[in-house]
Write a structure and sequence with these properties.
Keywords: Isomerase, Membrane, Transmembrane, Transmembrane helix. One of its GO terms (molecular function) is isomerase activity. This is Thiol-disulfide isomerase and thioredoxin. By secondary structure, the chain is α+β, with helices and mostly antiparallel strands. It folds into 2 domains: about 55 residues; about 120 residues, Glutaredoxin. The chain is built from 7 helices and 4 strands; from the N terminus they run ααααβαβαββα. It has a 4-stranded mixed beta sheet with strand order 2-1-3-4. Strand 1, helix 5 and strand 2 form a beta-alpha-beta unit. Helix 3 crosses helix 5.
Length: about 180
């Protein structure tokens, strides 16, 4: 059987033409899509990827956000009232927090452990940034993120400010230094 090279060449040319038409149709379809829709789709995909990548890390750092919220509320309930802390000569740690703040919730177990360790030497004060009664303290201490941990010496002078989830070892060291300085 002989090969009909002319027929094969004709079919190949037809196939190339169909492919070129399909590519042109695809290009025209993408040109009709609004650039903002493409940008939103890319942002959406990025957000989903971020959530999927961050979820295992979140699970590793906090067994349960609910337990963090419970610990945060317990800290707030058991905290030294602000006026009492300002009236006594002990150093003070003021935590500016919010119940909705997941970083505050994640920090709460460490803060509980530090409070247990330094309770007789340091006032632990919790001020909810969503409570309007603390607006003057928020301004005074320049709160620009939560959690913000402000350390005051016995003279009520701010000696350090830390923002975010600070490792327990660093907080313990700073509190020890604060206690030693008197």
């Amino acid at each position: 059987m002989e090969t009909d090279w002319g027929s094969i060449a004709c079919r190949a040319k037809l196939s190339d033409t169909i492919m070129a038409i399909n590519i042109d149709l695809l290009k025209r379809s993408f040109e009709k899509i609004h650039p903002q829709a493409i940008a939103l789709a890319v942002i959406g995909l990025f957000a989903i990827a971020t959530l999927l990548l961050a979820q295992p890390q979140l699970a590793a750092t906090s067994p349960s956000l609910a337990s963090g919220l419970v610990a945060l509320k317990t800290l707030a309930r058991d905290a030294t009232p602000y006026p009492d802390a300002m009236a006594n000569p002990q150093p003070t740690l003021i935590e500016f927090y919010a119940n909705w703040c997941t970083t505050c919730q994640a920090l709460a177990p460490d803060m509980m452990a530090l409070r247990d360790r330094f309770a007789t030497q340091v006032n632990f004060v919790m001020l909810d940034i969503d409570d309007p009664q603390w607006s003057s303290q928020i301004r005074e201490f320049g709160v620009n993120g939560v959690p913000q941990l402000t350390l005051l010496n016995g003279d009520r002078v701010a000696v350090d400010t830390l923002v975010g989830k600070v490792p327990q070892s660093i907080l313990a060291r700073r509190l020890s230094e604060l206690v030693e300085a008197g």
